[in-house]
Design goal:
Layout (H helix, E strand, L loop, with lengths): L5 E6 L7 H14 L3 E5 L2 H7 L2 E3 L28 E5 L2 E5 L2 H10 L4 E6 L1 H11 L5 E5 L15 H22 L2 E6 L6 H9 L4 E3 L7 H13 L5 E6 L11 E4 L9 E3 L2 H13 L3 E5 L11 H19 L5 E6 L2 E6 H5 L25 H8 L7
Parallel strand pairs: 1-2, 1-6, 6-7, 7-14, 8-10, 8-13, 9-10
Antiparallel strand pairs: 2-3, 4-5, 11-12, 14-15
Length: 380
């Protein structure tokens, strides 16, 4: 028999299509077993401030499977182990994790569900070491959470990028131009590579392969020699040239354990370089937040529902401090310790470091092989 009486849900990080579908599935599965559900408003920020709403029976949580965004909001760049507070008019950073633990105990929360990516699950693991029972659900459109075949939100992002490529393709062909599409993907190029294949792109530049601009120019000139006077390219925001570095749009002071740089400019740089080297007109389109907003695809609705139901099943079975995953097409779970890899330091939640265990594209991946087979230039 399960001892669960009340569970809490929070979201951390950028929004992803399917969040509401996950919430809905957790609520519905919990209801069948007589478990109460609440949602913390604005993620970890709401947990620190102990702001939550009842989800079971709440009209706000009805008819949400098709809705984008999240009915309980999300926290961004929030590290409860190094939390920004204002004292006497000054900004200071404090460890508020014990406050979170006490709030959960005072609220009678028997299990906390954390919907998020690499950094979110690192924070969940750290809270588990303080005695909190947690279950993670892998959320990121970048598809870079370790241990799972696919994160929810990813399919929608690829679908949006593919539609953008379809539209750019017609303009490129009509005006004999090179059209560059910059997509999200800070450390992993899943969106760029899969959308390049589905959208018929000629070049795909991803973070895992520092590109040689000479190779890219060669690919475009080869197309031109075959009578193809246009090209379509996909560039991940985290792509960078050999010997170069990430393109940074801005920085901020958000404290330790969060990402303090904003990427931007990778696609624009490629477009300028290609135009200068080929003499062909090149234009960049940055897809930006369009990838992560709006209605989830049917695939993401189903995947999100499966994840939410599985996460609640794990809680009912007493399997805590794990991440619900999809492995070889089947629902499963793995310990959060495996998800975080060597990123063991308490409070160090930032992803994309050498210690973190993010899922990036390996050179023997079928997507890489397929891209090469159909002639997509990867810049190497």
């Amino acid at each position: 028999m399960s001892d669960l009486k009340k569970i809490g849900i929070l979201i951390n990080g950028g929004d992803a299509p399917g969040l509401n579908a996950v919430i809905r599935a957790i609520i519905k599965t919990a209801r069948v077993h007589g478990v109460e559900s609440v949602g913390f408003i604005e993620g970890f920020k709401g947990l620190v401030e102990n702001r939550f709403i009842q989800l079971e029976g709440n009209p706000l949580a009805s008819g949400i499977i098709q809705k984008g965004g999240a009915i309980i909001g999300s926290s961004l760049n929030t590290n409860v182990f190094n939390y920004k507070v204002i004292e006497d008019g000054n900004v200071v950073y404090k460890d508020m994790s014990d406050v979170c633990v006490q709030n959960l105990r005072d609220d009678g929360i028997d299990c906390l569900f954390t919907l998020g990516g690499d950094s979110t699950q690192k924070a969940a693991r750290d809270l588990s070491l303080k005695g909190i029972r947690v279950i993670g659900v892998p959320k990121t459109i970048d598809n870079d959470v370790a241990g799972t075949d696919m994160t929810f939100g990813y399919n929608t992002a690829v679908s949006v990028a593919t539609e953008a490529l379809d539209r750019l393709h017609t303009t490129a062909e009509t005006h004999n131009r090179i059209m560059v599409l910059e997509v999200m993907g800070r450390y992993a190029g899943w969106i760029a590579l899969e959308s390049a294949i589905s959208g018929g792109a000629d070049v795909a530049l991803i973070p895992e392969i520092p590109y040689d601009m000479d190779k890219v120019v060669e690919a475009i000139n080869n197309r031109k020699a075959r009578g193809k006077n246009f090209s379509v390219m996909v560039v991940s925001e985290g792509a960078y040239p050999k010997g170069g570095d990430l393109f940074i749009k801005g920085t901020r002071e958000g404290g330790e354990g969060v990402i303090n740089v904003q990427l931007g400019g990778a696609g624009e740089f490629v477009a300028r370089e290609i135009e200068a080297r080929t003499g062909m007109t090149a234009r960049n389109t940055t897809l930006g937040y369009l990838q992560r907003g709006g209605t989830p695809t049917a695939t993401d609705r189903v995947l999100s529902t499966k994840y939410g139901a599985k996460a609640m099943e794990l809680a009912l079975e007493g399997k805590f401090n794990v991440l619900a995953v999809l492995k070889d097409g089947k629902l499963d779970s793995i310990p959060l310790e495996e998800v975080i890899g060597n990123n063991k330091e308490i409070g160090a939640v930032e992803g994309g470091t050498e210690e973190s265990n993010m899922k990036t594209i390996k050179m023997d991946d079928d997507l890489v092989k397929t891209a090469r087979d159909v002639g997509i230039c990867l810049g190497d």
